[in-house]
Design brief:
DNA-binding; transcription; 434 Repressor (Amino-terminal Domain); two-stranded antiparallel sheet; nucleus; CUT domain-containing protein
DNA sequence: TGCGAGTCAATACC
DNA sequence: GGTATTGACTCGCA
């Protein structure tokens, strides 16, 4: 809640190399954004209530004016709504971990090429201060969303027991009973294993989840009626707090939350410290997309800066984290998105991401957006639909 | 140079 | 309309 604290968190979480990875990554697009980075420290608590958030989200989705026609609908700092780092997610390199407590909004991130570098930057914790600098490089500037530090624990919960070893076995689901796990029961062995890990890491995923009361998945998976409440939970219980989605991430080894490197942000360490349960993330993403009737193409483009086909493949055939290289970044983004409050998610979807600083052809074609391509009718429709679902609580 | 990973884009399918 | 599949391409690495 404390802005300053957030900053600290940002340093801890976001500061970690993830962004740096991307930013400093080999991507030619990196560092192209001279635009000043705008850091907004906003407490999610600002959102008075879910309804408020929803309405706000709707506004965002509307694109600041009916789909915010090309560029018009862009996300604007002026919006009272908390900027979601979804933007950052979209093609953003921001550390996954930061999503929990702090958000770096990086609109229009250059990037399509998600660098694999992130993993190499686990030591980037020393560069957290650089973090912002790099962010400044974003085309539209970066935004830092302050969040309740409570997210730390939450994030922890996101870590799943997914273990490297699992790669050989195939991915295991997180121990989350209520999570996707319900869909795919995790093997006991894995479960235990993960549990051990968590213990070692000092986290109890289950407990964390329980504490969070992540009804989210159950409902989502449960089908209609599941409603949006899950999100509410996240938000309700913890205003501005991203709904946790169970342990998608697994703390690898002893993940010092406090350690700068770990930054408590999954993926912040760039896979060095945390592992994302790709299977579970895929399942959750799939569930969320269905739940909100979000087309894969939209999500892939807006959030991941990837093609529909790529997303489809990843969702259907997620590779074990241990086997991923540069592809980890894509999962990190998905994970980050999952951690976002719904309104932020929607915002992310609504925001046209200029992957690499240019409008992706697909977006242009699909959304008929101009170079700025912010809001496309299609996108607006999707966004609005999402909002509708949100508010109505009825699956579209 | 060859290989694997990751992704795209076209296309088939539902 | 949305999703799944697949061939081809690019890139990094040994």
């Amino acid at each position: 809640m404390n802005p300053e604290m957030t900053m600290d968190l940002g340093s801890l979480h976001a500061g970690v190399g993830h962004e740096q990875d991307l930013m400093s990554g080999h991507s030619p697009h990196h560092n192209r954004n001279p635009g000043a980075s705008l850091r907004i420290h906003q407490e999610l608590s600002v959102a008075p209530s879910r309804s408020a958030m929803v309405s706000g989200m709707a506004s965002i989705l509307d694109g600041g004016g009916g789909g915010g026609g090309g560029g018009g609908g862009e996300y604007r700092p002026e919006l009272s709504l908390p900027l979601h780092h979804a933007m950052s997610m979209s093609c953003d390199t921001s550390p996954p971990g930061m999503s929990g407590t702090y958000t770096t909004l990086t609109p229009l991130q250059p990037l399509p090429p998600i660098s694999t570098v992130s993993d190499k930057f686990h030591h980037a914790h020393h560069h957290h201060h650089h973090h912002h600098q790099r962010l400044s490089g974003n085309v539209s500037g970066s935004f830092t969303l302050m969040r309740d530090d409570r997210t730390l624990p939450a994030m922890n919960s996101l870590y799943s027991p997914y273990h490297k070893e699992m790669s050989g076995m195939g991915q295991s689901l997180s121990p989350l009973g209520n999570g996707l796990g319900s869909m795919h029961p995790a093997p006991q062995t894995l479960h235990n294993y993960s549990h051990d890990k968590m213990l070692s890491s000092g986290f109890d995923t289950h407990a964390a989840m329980l504490s969070r009361g992540d009804p989210h998945l159950p409902r989502a998976l449960g089908g209609p009626g599941a409603g949006m409440m899950p999100h509410l939970n996240g938000m309700h219980a913890h205003p501005g707090h991203p709904p946790s989605h169970g342990s998608v991430l697994t703390s690898n080894r002893d993940r010092p939350l406090s350690s700068s490197s770990s930054s408590g942000a999954p993926g912040s360490a760039s896979g060095q410290l945390e592992e994302i349960n790709t299977k579970e993330v895929a399942q959750r993403i799939t569930a969320e997309l269905k739940r909100y009737s979000i087309p894969q193409a939209i999500f892939a483009q807006r959030v991941l800066c990837r093609s529909q086909g790529t997303l489809s493949d990843l969702l259907r055939n997620p590779k074990p984290w241990s086997k991923l290289k540069s592809g980890r970044e894509t999962f990190r983004r998905m994970w980050k998105w999952l951690q976002e409050p719904e309104f932020q998610r929607m915002s992310a979807l609504r925001l046209a991401v200029n992957c690499g600083g240019f409008v992706h052809p697909l977006l242009s074609a699909a959304f008929g957006s101009s170079s700025s391509s912010r809001s496309s009718s299609l996108y607006s429709a999707a966004a609005q639909r999402s909002v509708f679902v949100y508010t109505a609580g009825t699956p579209v």
